[in-house]
Give the backbone structure.
Amino acid sequence: MATASIQVSETPLVLYALRRADDALILGHRLSEWCGHAPALEEDMALANMGLDLLGQARELYSYAAKVEGNGNDEDKFAYLRDVRQYRNLLLLEQPNGDFARTMVRQFFYAAFADLYWRAMMKSDDTTLAAIAAKSEKESAYHLRHSSEWIVRLGDGTEESHARAQAAIDDLWAYTGEMFHIDDSERALIDDGIAVDPATLHPQWFKTISDVVSEATLALPKNDWMQQGGRSGRHSEHLGHLLSELQSMQRTFPGVTW
Amino acid sequence: MVTAVHDDAELRQRAWNAAAEVVDPEIPVLTIADLGVLRDVAVTDGRVEVAITPTYSGCPAMNMIMVEIELALERAGFRNSKIRTVLSPAWTTDWMSDDGRRKLREYGIAPPQAASSRRALFGVEQVACPQCGSEDTEVLAEFGSTSCKALWRCRSCREPFDYFKCH
């Protein structure tokens, strides 16, 4: 029956690449869930396109993690053969799509961060991460522009769309702090010039989202209590459900190929 | 059979010419050379190594392009070729040849503009309609039929068209 999960030797660099790969895979998967369900054909294509960008980023990052780890793992094994507790993505990105406003707010919070993050990572001393960053930052710029336009349209739209967008902001806000949190393993990589300190990105991130949210006649919550745990494998219940769908084929028919 | 010995530069040119004819499966008027996807061709001991770079990270055409290159090289007499992808420097629409831009326009796709306004959060781009040439156009959707395209409409001739995004 089901295949056993792989073991991963999470050295700081492997862990670092896996965390970003998981971010991209999980958000990309969430976006792919809209395929055929988006409110308009153009949005259906936009969400699928962005999901594809993220899947491409995930593949590069997983392949790099596999190379650094050198244990015979590969992109497919990382994606299909790790359990929920082995996933390292941000909690924000595994949150369910909800309505369109919720998907856009999630996308907006993350894209505003990813745009800055990848641009900063282009200067990483790790040449592979810098190369992946150079591709990803161009894509993130589009994702940010797309979601920003939607935040304004929804917030400054009808009473209904405004209420839904505000509810999404209020509900997802507590997951945004995790983007700026680091632990000891990342601190070492930051000191080595491989990783960027996300705290340095926070002022610009906050300015970007504040500007857009205010143009959208919406408001950011005042509370600053932040949830975290995804980076160390403590996830919300939603990720397990997502993985059961994403992994069902490989878990049921180990090693199956097209 | 004994293969005639060619000097490396000539072999490399032959291999390049073969690989350069492969077209983008999504935009069959453009070759991978027009697009700037073909980065390098090297010949070592008769074995060809081709380096290509993806346009977008998730571009699904890449796998097909790799297979097509291998087949094109085989037809040109090169066996066991190796195709690798390089990420750095990151592909940019600036690499698209003038010939490529012209072919794109004739095919009905507006070629990429200068990338300067890409950073603007609510950027305004001026894109000329590939059908009638009018600049009275508007964006319908930032994302089009493939990752590299956006959907636009001409207010003058009323035709919708694809725009190859700056990247």
User: Anything to note?
Assistant: Residues 106 and 130 of chain B are 7 Å apart (CA to CA). The first helix of chain B runs from residue 8 to 20. Chain B has two domains: 8-91, 97-164.
